[in-house]
Structure formats: structure tokens, C-alpha cells
Amino acid sequence: MLHSFAPNNVPKPLAWGTYKKDPDSHFYMCDFYDMTDDLPDISRFCAVVAQIHLDSMGKPPNGQYGFPVTTHLAYVDNDNSWSDSWEKWYARALKRMLQEEEKSHGPDDELKVLTAAMFDKVIPRLLRPLETGGRQIKPCLIHSDLWPGNVKPDAETDEPIVFDSCAFWGHNEVDLGSWRAPRYRLGRPYMTEYHKHIPVSPPAEDWDDRNALYAMRYDLLHSALFPKEPKFRRAAMDEMKRLVDKHPDGYGGFSG
User: Fold this and answer.
1) CB-CB contact of 85 with 71 (8 Å)
2) In sequence order, what E strands does the chain have?
3) What is the per-residue pLDDT across 79-117, written as a single tens digit (0 to 9) for each?
4) How crowded is residue 203: how many other Cβ atoms within 10 Å of its Cβ?
5) Is residue 29 over pLDDT 80?
6) What are 39-52's pLDDT values in tens digits?
């Protein structure tokens, strides 16, 4: 599906399916590109991502957030059940990642308290204003795993080649969540370049906190993937604490 919105930057799918003799094994084939291991050109990459978002905006099959099939971030299966509320859809997605993270690191009392406050206060405060007070967002096709390992420059043309998506229909800004982490070397310059094509969603003053909320899902994913590495859980918890302390009154504290 992503290829249909960016045929020059997403490899064309050729074949996919399940092995007859091993129903738990699957295959996928697409066009081959020779790529370098450099960061994608900032202007070209951000233009491609923004164009995918713009061209697909408002075009989910039922007008809702979600996806018709289960997709995976690494090995983590995502609950893509449809929802007409972005707040509800993202809360469910974050809860799914927290469940997987706990399997890797075990329960934690402080994390439990912070998580409750996130769902009761922070998520309503940061996401509900996007779709209230006359404001609205239109679901667009999200790649959802836009880190440098899934975006490489074409060796001949230097055009960014985007692959290995975990697609769903969602708020366009959620695709910038993974760019926040210093480990990916993208950060604020790439976000600024992207927003030259698509303005920040109102309320604009919430943009940085929304981005932190979206980035949190990727820190939790990494924590789930690396059970012997505590730094990703700690990073997620530190960000949770900052947001909980900043928005103690939840949606009731929104004055817009």
C-alpha cells in the first residue's frame, strides 16, 4: 500500500505468502535496490514522507484509525483494530507495547503508577484536543518505523528508499516519534524540515509533548527487545514523569 503513494521511493511488492510445509514461516519479495548506509538527504527524505502523508490523508477505507490486518514492530504484534478516536487508538497501541515491555523486564511499582497517570491524565490532555473544539485530524497512511535502518539512499540516485513498514492509518505526526531519539541521528532538524511541508497540528503549543508521547512507544519497544538493557525503560519512565508532572490536571487543564 505504501508503494502506491510513493512508487519511486518504496520498493514494489512482487510476491508474498506462507510456506506450504511450514505454516509458521512466511515470505515477501520486492524490487531490489542497491543502497548506501548513509543517512537520507534531509530535504528529499522529509519531502517523501510528507508527500505520502498528504496524498493518503483522509483516505482510509472506513475513515477511521487502524489497519485491516495485524502488523508488527520487530516481533511485537500490534492491535490495529479500527477506532474513530485517535486518542483511543493510540492509548491501545501504547498499552500493547507496555504489556510486551513488562514481559521482558518484569513489573515495576513506579512504572505502574506512572502508567496509570499517563492513561488517566497525559494521553487525554495531549491527544483529545486534536479532535475537539472544532479541531480535527484526518487519518493518513503511517509507515510507523521510520528509523535510518528502514530508510537508505539509493546508491545511484541518492533518492531515499523507504521499506519495512508497520503500516496503519493515524495522525501524521506519529511518524516523527522515532526521530526524537538521539540514537537515530535525525532529531529536530528533520522534524523542522518535515513541517515545511505539513504544518504542526493545532494546538501547536502541545507539539513537543505530543512528539515525546509518540517517541515513548519506541523506547518501550527497545526495552522489550533488549531485556538485559535497562536504559530504554528508564528513558521511557523519565519522560512519563516529566509529562505527568507537567499535566497533573489532564484534559481538564487544557485551556484551548
Assistant:
1) no
2) 13-19, 22-30, 72-73, 76-77, 140-142, 151-153, 160-162, 168-170
3) 999 999 999 999 999 999 999 999 999 999 999 999 999
4) 16
5) yes
6) 999 999 999 999 99
The length of the chain, given as a count of residues? 256
Residue 250 DSSP code: G
d(CA 180, CA 240): 15
> Residue 240: which of 76, 98, 75, 100 has the closest Cα?
98
C-alpha cell at 214: 509518540
What is 124-190 written as a DSSP string? HHHHGGGGSTT-----EEE----SGGGEEEBTTT--EEE-----EEE-GGGGGGGGGSGGGS-HHHH
Strands 22-30 and 72-73: unpaired
Residue among 52, 72, 100 nearest 165 (CA): 72
Grid coordinates 528533520 are at which residue?
190
**This prediction's pTM:** 0.94
Q: How far apart are CA 160 and CA 44, in angstroms?
A: 7
